[in-house]
Amino acid sequence: MKPINKTIRVFAPASSANLGCGFDVMGMALDGIGDVLRIAISEGDGLTIRNTSAAELPEDIEKNVITPAVRAFMAAAGKKACLEIVVEKKIRPGSGIGSSAASSAAAVFGLNELYGRPFPLPELVPFAMEGEKLISGTAHADNSAPAVMGGIVLIRGYQPLDMVRLPIPDSFCFAIVHPHIVVSTKAARDVLRKEIPMHEAVTQWGNVGGLVAGIMTGDLPLIGRSMRDVVVEPYRKGFIPGYDDLKSACLAAGALCVNISGSGPSVFALSDSIEKAQQVGKAMKRHFTALRIANDLYVSHIPSVGARVVE
To answer: Is the overall model pTM greater than 0.70, yes or no?
Structure first.
């Protein structure tokens, strides 16, 4: 099959992984933030990646997360082509909102469109996960799945990959702040314990079950009291200045729940209205501004669509 077009421009959203208690098994797409790639395809065999965005990316394509994702797609599709990928807009790497997943998802989604959609959306996720594997050493789907598919995704298992797209509760809104500090994914994983006491594991299982039940039924108070993490948050919060004070300020401003987005340093909060989310966002902004830490704030709804073609 030849490509049905020669060029395409695609967007894939940022995402928030873990959602508190769902370490490596839950993720949520974020509206209004993401990567934009332009992909050109011609006869031949090769890959060129150019960066015209404001973000700093590796010049060596072997260190770019797009490369293993693209190669995995092309191998599975049985295709060879000369590809040029231009990164036009990029989430800041190391932000904790799925920078590598957004690039990988946009790349494989764009190729799938160019070749006439040989793979359904869920089958693109394992290709995008190869980018995650390059950057963190682990092919996890909690960012890749929502970046490709949108909405909220539960990864029930990895062998084989088993994903469940959950409904988005009405009026579900987020505020997420990205302080301009660096937390590497590797460092954030290295700080975690290798063994978890049984009583903490039981608490975490109950929270994950409650979170999924709350999302499925639209029970926002249940979501609020379930999106708590006793396994990861206590060990990663030290990377984020004044985290406990920030969390208290967000809850006081009307947040249902607050937690670290992925490996950090971004912090997300969920609210039951856009007005409350905006107030929570102001509290986030005040916190980091008072600490003289530059930051970016995003407030919006949860998107039902993930990667998509853009004009």
So the answer is: yes
